[in-house]
Design a protein that fits this description.
Blueprint lengths: L22 H12 L4 E4 L6 H11 L6 E7 L6 H12 L8 H10 L6 E4 L6 E4 L7 H15 L2 E7 L12 H9 L5 E7 L2 H9 L10 E4 L5 H14 L6 H10 L4 H13 L6 H23 L4 H13 L8 H6 L5 H13 L3 E3 L4 E3 L2 H8 L2
Parallel strand pairs: 1-6, 1-7, 2-5, 5-6
Antiparallel strand pairs: 3-4, 8-9
Helix pairs in contact: 1-2, 3-5, 11-15, 12-14, 12-15
Length: 372
Amino acid sequence: MNTLENPFVVSGYFGKEYFCDREVESAMILDALRNQRNVVLSAPRKMGKTGLIHQVFEMVKNDKNLTTIYLDIFSTQCLADFVRLFASAVLGKLDTGSQKAISQIGKFFSGLKPTFGIDTLTGLPQVSVTVTEEQKESSLKDVFEYLKQSQKECYIAIDEFQQIATYPEKGVEALLRSYIQFLPNVHFIFAGSKQHLLQEMFCSAKRPFYQSAQIVSILQINNEIYYKFAQSFFEKRNRTLPKEVFMDLYEKFDGYTWYLQIVLNRLYSVNENITKEKVGLVISQIIMEYTYFYQQMLTTIPAYYSHLLRAIAEENCVAEITSGNFITKYRLKAASSVRSALDKLLIHELVYKTDNGYIVYDRFMNEWLKTR
């Protein structure tokens, strides 16, 4: 891959050189897949889950007997959307780029009305499909049959997998499980950021995917490891990232990868000495850019919800959110009202529950709320 002008990547994946650590998690995922175990990859948003998937796939890219496929289903709203995206991601990936293979795919999936093109980089077919409401289940069956008949080993990562639980159709989980469990050559990574939904899907005995996959959760990268990673890039530019400055930054954003990368990206682009004051200015600039968005967001929720949100921000993390001390300190209403407001904030992903307590999910928003 090409050398990046700025090594602190804030979106996408650009190779292992720009990917920090996750060695243990990568090894766990590969061990599971190589031993025919599916994986549930769970992580809060902005922790680097998607990058980890691409890092794992990068580690096996030279295995000519293995195909890796990634798809993000966050945008899907129903089973037909899922089948359309799933089919487009899978079809053609397990074949050669010959016209004969393309013809065979078109014949096998005639009901999907596939449209073919050729990827100029890989020489493999590119497929787009049309799926009608009437064909969605039969089309899904065809895609899984295609995977099974290929007999080629394949790793498929489905990002934001919990989205299937929101589809209006009943029995989607059971339908997918009925096909997935009979694919000996295909192994899945089910990834998601809504951890409570993933936990319910894979840990509840009432759900079809109960105990069907190994759980891998990722948390913060160790601060010492992250510092060495970051400092190495500054050294290449004959600059220094003071350790105490980085550690303050790491603590401010609780080690959440994306927020650290955003700040480091901007610090790297400015040819100045890195100081606490400079970090503060960069963060202030970022927050100022988001101010209008945050102001508009607060207008969409009741005033009492925003009152609770600001109180959580002031504390950074609240372990006992219905305690008398917390309620009194911030002049909140009764514990029952706090609990009701909290439930709504959790549903809208404005607040997130960690092992230590409740935090404002958007860490930049957390800083902005403190200034109000």
